Amino acid sequence: MSKSKLLVIDDELAIRRFLRASIDPAVFDLVEAEDGATGIRMVATEAPDLILLDLGLPDMYGVEVTQRIREWSQTPIIILSARGDEMNKVVALDAGANDYLTKPFGLAELFARVRAALRLSQKRGQDAVVTLGDVHVDLAAHIVRRKGEEIHLTKTEFRLLALLAKNLGKVMTHKQLLTEVWGPEYADELHYLRVYSQQIRAKIEEDPTQPKLLITETGVGYRLKD
Amino acid sequence: MLGEAHQHRERGIDVAIGYIETHGRAETESLAIGIPVIPLREITYKGATLFEPDIDEIIVLKPDLVLIDELPHTNAEGSRHKKRWQDIEEILDAGIDVCTAMNIQHLESMNDVVAQVTGIRVQETVPDAFIERANEIEVIDIPPGELQQRLREGKVYVPEKVDQALDGFFKASNLTALRELALRRAADTVDAEMRRLRTQEGAGGPWATRERVVVCIAPNAMASRVVRAAARISAASHADMIAVAVDSDRQASRSDLERGQATDALELAKTLGMEVVTLSGHDIVDEVLRFAFKRNATLVVVGKPIRARWKELLFGSVVDEMVRASGDVDVYVVTADEPTTDRRRDRAKTSQGSITLLGAGLGLLFIGIATALGFALFELVGIANVAMLYVLGVAIAAVRSYPIESALTAVISVLSFNFFFVEPRFSFAVSDTRYIVLLLVMLFVALVISTLTQRLKGQLKDASERERRTSSLYRLSQLLAQQRGKRELAAVAAQEIRSVFDGDVSVLLAEQGKLTPIGSSDSGFEQKPSELAVATWVAEHRQPAGAGTDTLPGAAALYLPLLGSERLAGVLAVQVSHKPLPLGPRRLLETFANSLGLALERAILAKESNDARVQVESERIRSTLLSSISHDLRTPLTSITGAASSLKEGNPNQAPLIETIYDESIRLNHQIQNLLDMTRLQSGGVELNLDWHLAQDLITSALEHSRSSLGPRDVQVEIRGHIPLLRVDGLLIEKALVNLIENTGRHTPPESRIALVAETQDHNVVFQVRDNGPGVSEEILHKLFKPGYHSRSGGYGLGLAVVKVVTDLHNGKIQVRNTEEGGAEFSLKLPLTEHQPEMPIE
């Protein structure tokens, strides 16, 4: 993998300093912007591979920055936001942000998200088979295998799992999942997801009460971990 | 006036011209130069453009003194007030001094005297009470000859009108008489002022007992005249005036016009500063005198129309009765010729004096029946009994007919009896003188019966009307007593008033300086901006306005302020079909408005005191919180600062210091998070983001978020049986569970085991966080979730306080106990909804 360029849009000097100090210059190039307008301009001039965007900028809402960038660029965006701000997080994700990180965050968590987002965006075309530990989801053949054994999923269960698998590692909002699997008129029927996610866990997880693959992001959506 | 304005200006007073009448004279106009003029307001009415002083602009500009000429002026239709003096009153109330001018003949109490002296009834009058507000009254006195000279020179009117004026009102005799009136009035005022000053200086001396005068207002054309006469007495003697109207069945025959005159007189009495009382009873004299005795009045003022002597003899006179029964109270009689023609014509129009098809038909029917029966029984029972049959017929017909009809029936029945039965029969002639006596007695009896029946009917009607009002008032007060919230009160009252007055009603509540319609009208008339403006005016000035009043009479409805004892609660808007409302209903409506105003105020006060209590309570909690928070935040900060400074100094033992910084930062973050949550949850108005959640999801993600604080502790998750979907705010419940788990992690040794259990227990979902640690000490076990409890030992407080608030918001229950094995067990119990959501069919 070639060297990736990260753009950090955050008005807090301390956070930018900590990121600069922590990121290995051999792996990432880091460029910084301290407000939304500069950030948007730098997306064009610097052409970063990934954007870390703070939701609370001095000049405009992070959600607005996301929308403006998404007008012409598909560069993956990871939202940095405080806990309790789920509402804005979800709006930003629905507006096209790829993932989010809750402040304060550790480096390990940051790099995991960055890697997942980069992998998704750099992938040309879709793998036919997505591997989640010992679970294999064959998107082309509509078959799910666990430890080599075929698991029977209903049509809807499969569509939900496949959608999450295609976006492996990325959080999918309730609205995105419901709209894609059931249709836009079901965007608020949250209980569908509750029940189906439970059914899927029962089939693919080792211990469904302590899931390792299908993770609930309370107030936001679901994420499939590999 | 302009000269004075210049003097004021020189003394540095901010003077402006609100309105002056130059009569087109250059001399006057030149005097106005140098004084700022507030532009006039243009009013277009029926094609003509009229100019009036712009009250709002004057109030906005707020000069010290404003000149407004022509005080008695009647405003153009469509103005806010009917009269200019009301405009000025509003300006005065806004704290602006006004300099104005008027002629003596426009003074309300002078109206009758002026009419007598000059033969001209002045229409534009100013109430005496208003003039009495003046700080200073200056008499501008010119000898009549000089005035006429000025008039000729064109200094008073434009020249075209001069001749007409000199022949009419400005005759020398008139001017002299008016001059006398003006000077005498001025002398009275000076006299009163002197007496006032003298009493002030002699303070401490005995209080002079004030005289009290009762002014009796009857529904007739004299009513206003009586009030004015009384006002003059009051001006001279400084007596307290009480205007009294008696609502009596004896006045049932009065026309609407006459009732209206009584209403007008009462309004006039009010503007003249009198107390207004309405009594009700059958005997007017008795009621008035009883009231006068009760209030220790020394004088009763009554009006007496001069009538023909035979009328006096036949019908008696209220005034004579009053004089006879008055005892110690003096009676002052104001007289005038009875206005005859008008009243008759008017009376014929009213139902009381009308002849209807039904009434006339009934009368004729019963006369016919009596005649037929008479023919059948004449031979058998004799002539005297036939006369009885007719009288019976008259009595029955009277029950269902109007007074004139029943009197006519009586007369016709006597005539028929005479025609058909008295010798010689079938002619109106009477042969025997004894029959003449019979006929007269019969006529008299028939008339008396019909009159008595009418009176009884009148009393009955009145009684039932009064009964209806009393009972509706009673019902309203009952209804108001049952309600608590002001919106409910307003809605209930609107409903009741609507049913009693048979009109469209709306109650507008004053909320945050705005009027909000509650219990809206059917037609929604109060929503119109023009109507809302009237309501706003009423709210600002706390006076009635709208249809049937002097202020903004063009409005569609009558607006009454809803006043409590010290504040305005709102405005009552009533649109009735027949306007203006007669006296009785208008009073009743005002009583309704009063009760509603007081009830609303009570509701507002109750809410405020409750709010204040809540405020105090939350202040208390906040201060307790604050002290525990500063501890909870400083502890990790101290460790972080210490460790970081040690690293900066170059301490070689880096690993444990870095570990400390990391752990304490995490802890600090938790504290801040709890603090933020607590602040948000306790600030009130938290809206739960309710949606369907799985107990298992909640536990799993709570565990995910709290895992790092558990270290090596072993965690078991146990979901017992099938648990239905919960309708909760997922984030809040997850937060509560995280706090419970972290709390357990903080208070158990690292080798402890933790069990997270969820199960259904009779319509509740119970989450348990159980450990095998040392348990909770007995001392704090019972107060852990009591409001206001915050431990100082490393944040039991904040985290669990959040759990408690979240639980309460969900109508749940949080409990803690020590298990038999010795560990602590926290149970969070949440109620299940009655129905589960529908699932899609696959």
Structure, described:
The complex is a heterodimer of chains A (226) and B (842). In chain A, the strands form three sheets. Chain A has a five-stranded parallel sheet with strand order 2-1-3-4-5, with helices on both faces. Chain A has a four-stranded antiparallel sheet with strand order 6-7-8-9, covered by helices on one side. Chain A has a three-stranded antiparallel sheet with strand order 10-12-11. In chain A, helix 1 (13-22) links the parallel strand 1 (4-9) and strand 2 (28-33). With 226 residues, chain A is α/β, with parallel strands linked by helices. The two termini of chain A are 20 Å apart. Chain A has helices at 13-22, 36-46, 62-70, 86-94, 107-122, 155-166, 174-181, 190-204, and strands at 4-9, 28-33, 50-54, 77-82, 99-103, 129-132, 135-138, 143-146, 149-151, 171-173, 214-217, 221-224. Chain A contains eight helices and twelve strands. Chain B contains 27 helices and 22 strands. Chains A and B meet through helix 8 and strand 11 of A and helix 23, strand 16, helix 24, strand 17 and helix 25 of B.
Topology readout:
The complex is a heterodimer of chains A (226) and B (842).
Chain A: E1 4-9, H1 13-22, E2 28-33, H2 36-46, E3 50-54, H3 62-70, E4 77-82, H4 86-94, E5 99-103, H5 107-122, E6 129-132, E7 135-138, E8 143-146, E9 149-151, H6 155-166, E10 171-173, H7 174-181, H8 190-204, E11 214-217, E12 221-224
Parallel strand pairs in A: 1-2, 1-3, 3-4, 4-5
Antiparallel strand pairs in A: 6-7, 7-8, 8-9, 10-12, 11-12
Chain B: H1 2-10, E1 15-19, H2 26-31, E2 41-45, E3 48-52, H3 55-61, E4 65-68, H4 84-93, E5 97-100, H5 111-118, H6 128-132, H7 144-152, H8 162-167, H9 172-201, E6 212-217, H10 223-237, E7 240-247, H11 256-271, E8 275-280, H12 284-294, E9 299-306, H13 309-315, H14 318-325, E10 330-337, H15 341-349, H16 357-381, H17 383-399, H18 403-421, H19 433-482, H20 486-501, E11 504-511, E12 514-518, H21 529-541, E13 545-546, E14 558-563, E15 568-575, H22 583-648, H23 654-682, E16 690-693, H24 695-706, E17 714-719, E18 726-729, H25 730-746, E19 753-761, E20 764-771, H26 778-781, H27 796-809, E21 813-818, E22 824-831
Parallel strand pairs in B: 1-4, 4-5, 6-7, 6-9, 7-8, 9-10, 17-19
Antiparallel strand pairs in B: 2-3, 11-12, 11-15, 13-14, 14-15, 16-18, 19-20, 20-22, 21-22
Helix pairs in contact in B: 10-11, 12-14, 16-17, 16-18, 17-18, 17-19, 18-19, 19-20, 19-22, 20-22, 22-23, 23-27, 24-25, 25-27
